[in-house]
Amino acid sequence: MALHVCNDPQGVLENRHQLEKETIPLNRWALAWQKHTDQFYRVTRKDIGKGAYDKDTSILNVDALYTTEPEILIGVFTADCLGILAFDSTTPCVCTIHSGWKGTVQKITYKTIAHLIQKQLLHPQTTQVFFGPSLQFDSLEIGQDVITQIQAMDMNTVPFLKPISEQKALFDNQGLNIQMLRDLGIPSENIHPSSYDTLKDTQDTFSYRMNNRLKEFPKCGEHFIYGYIDKKSLNE
Q1: In sequence order, what E strands does 100-182 have?
Q2: Are 2 and 224 within 8 A, CB to CB?
Q3: Domain-embedded: residue 3
Q4: Percent of the chain beyond pLDDT 90?
Q5: Which residues contact 90 (CB under 8 A, 6 or more apart)?
Q6: Cβ(62)–Cβ(39) under 8 Å?
Q7: Phi and psi of 211, rounded to 5°?
Q8: Separation of alpha carbons 35 and 176, rounded Å
Q9: How far apart are the C-alpha atoms of 80 and 133, rounded to whole Å?
Q10: Can you give 33-56 as a three-state secondary structure string?
Q11: Bridge partners of 147?
Q12: 66 pLDDT more than 80
């Protein structure tokens, strides 16, 4: 589904055309070209079509998108990193976030959701959050440089690190993002983790790390975490 990392752009567009049949027309999509930042962006009508047909028209240098306008499909791409979909149907507002370890260290999830709560676009008690496939705790191995950055965060990260040697540890990226949501007042029952591990569930997921291990292809596929506000639901 991603144009910025693919071997066959035409094949990606064919996949997108298949998905538009089940969602909304491709010319009403607005997509990001993520760069592992902590930046978020409000998508409006002026952004319709960005990144839909050409990666070079994507919304650049942001890793989270949100919108309050109906009939605009927003989304992010992941292939080991964590993809997050948050929405509040009472507002309505929908948000998609891309957070690998770099994004998590920068607290992109916390910053984005806190902003939306402050603007009263999301209300903790009515916000639902879903996580896409990612490297789970037992598969996300990190080195000392990353460990140091995680430990320097302004929150308790001890439960989310499991040392495996003097210089390496396993990291619960999904768990730390869940904690950020809880810290913002979102109830645990409104948070829906994923059990898919991209390094182990190779038949059903894409993994950048596994792809590099196999050295079979220069690029791998990516999951598409997307959402939109259905205009029909607003009239119900």
Answers
A1: 128-131, 141-143, 161-163, 168-171
A2: yes
A3: no
A4: 85
A5: 123, 126
A6: yes
A7: -60, -40
A8: 20
A9: 7
A10: ECCCCCCEEECCHHHCCCCCCCHH
A11: none
A12: yes
Name the region of 164 (left: φ>0; alpha: ψ -120 to 50; beta: rest). Answer: alpha
Number of domains in the chain: 1
Are 160 and 171 spatial neighbours (Cβ–Cβ below 8 Å)?
yes
User: Alpha-carbon distance 88 to 68, whole Å?
Assistant: 10
Domain assignment present for 142: no
Residue 164 included in any domain: no
User: Residue 212 has what pLDDT?
Assistant: 67
DSSP string, 108-125: HHHHHHHHHHHTTSS-GG
Full residue range of the structural domain in which residue 195 is found? 9-136+173-234
Q: What is the CATH number of the domain that holds 116?
A: 3.60.140.10
How do residues 73-104 score in pLDDT, each as one tens digit? Answer: 999 999 899 999 999 999 999 999 999 999 99
Residue 120 lies in a domain: yes
